[in-house]
Hints:
Its EC number is 1.4.99.-. This protein is α/β, with parallel strands linked by helices.
Amino acid sequence: MKILVxxxxxxxxxxxxYLSRDGHEVEVVERRPGAGMETSFGNAGGLCPxxxxxxxxxxxxxxxxxxxMQSNAPVRFxxxxxxxxxxxxxxxxxxxxxxxxxxxxxxxQRVAHYSYACLRELMAETPIAFDFHAGGVLQLFQTDAExxxxxxxxxxxxxxxxxxxxxxxxAALAVEPALKHARVAVAGALHLPADASxxxxxxxxxxxxxxxxxxxxxxxATKVDHLLYSQGRVTGAETSSGPLTADITVIAMGNQAPAIxxxxxxxxxxxxxxxxxxxxxxxxxxxxxxxxxxxxHSKVMVSRLGNRIRAAGMAELIGDDLSLKAARKDLLIRTVxxxxxxxxxxxxxxxxxxxxxxxxxxxPILGPAGWDGLLLNSGHGxxxxxxxxxxxxxxxxxxxxxxxxxxxxxxxLERYAA
Length: 418
Ligand SMILES: Cc1cc2nc3c(=O)[nH]c(=O)nc-3n(C[C@H](O)[C@H](O)[C@H](O)COP(=O)(O)OP(=O)(O)OC[C@H]3O[C@@H](n4cnc5c(N)ncnc54)[C@H](O)[C@@H]3O)c2cc1C
């Protein structure tokens, strides 16, 4: 079959891989000059199935409100009454109770662990390199209260059979010796040895280049204007380079997916959640982290990507604004410096902002959308790098008329119909 993938972020590029592997003729349309240039460009790099979970959690609305009142808090939202945001926030609020949290968390865990297994397989099947590091992730706690929450998380991990270890401060420093230089308190940690990290932009670039040698066509610098459709069937897309037709069109456009689907009457509850990252060179290896460290106090994740570190965090519900605010860069650097004061070239750190394509409940939206010839692979939120390969494989299975290897209950658009 001829299949058009719209968007070459980590989700679209991975989708092109599985579709091509399944023998389809694949074309990818991307408005940027290369793959992985938007949200997939500067994320924290965490491949973290062990703690993949929704942003909608018990206690979050109060926490978000409290933080929004503080100046330069890591969480911020606009009070401007934008209808799109209000509708999304209302749905998000409904997902914040304990029962909904459990359902959503389990759905995301199902995708994330499957996805990690798919990524490992993809790595064995292709020659691509992307600063992959399988050293696990350390969730760091600075206070006793955070340690208590860590213990609750550990119980949940035990219930799900996910490898983990609760560490006292001494053991935490043994796992990540660079923390010995920290200026903040290390009260304890949770080690997730099965998690990993890698550069998703490098992944996209390398995979896209490899796919091009295998016959997949990437139309870069080509904007999708609208979908082509008639009589209940999507037949392709009108682009800045002219029409492209296909048997199946896959929507992997991150935050732009709702706008492209709206003329078809498809409402995708995806809203951008802005975050920031810095990337800095490592100057003294033993002073910089060797593994990914998730600082639960600031909610900033620091990953080692080869001879660089990437630190990312913050959450702003302010629309499509991608402006870079110096105060946010300062806050991020201050936070990371507290953890790793030396061995990193903070002076020349590059600064980036991206928009997580968030669903209100957390899981992505995969598969059918009520139109023949159309499949969704959207709404990957704050876990898109972790979930990309698994969701791509599910979508390729659906396109090929096969039953996906994981249950897609709760992962399709249907869940919002009720
Ligand atoms: C600060 C931050 C930290 C994060 N950390 C992590 C992490 O540690 N681990 C993790 O798993 N996830 C993380 N994420 C989330 C992850 O980055 C996203 O979920 C993921 O990148 C989404 O991928 P995507 O392909 O859906 O979207 P994108 O990467 O945005 O790709 C969509 C593509 O569609 C293209 N497009 C859109 N409109 C059009 C059009 N009209 N015509 C043509 N092309 C179009 C865009 O140019 C873009 O390339 C983080 C995100 C942020 C912002």
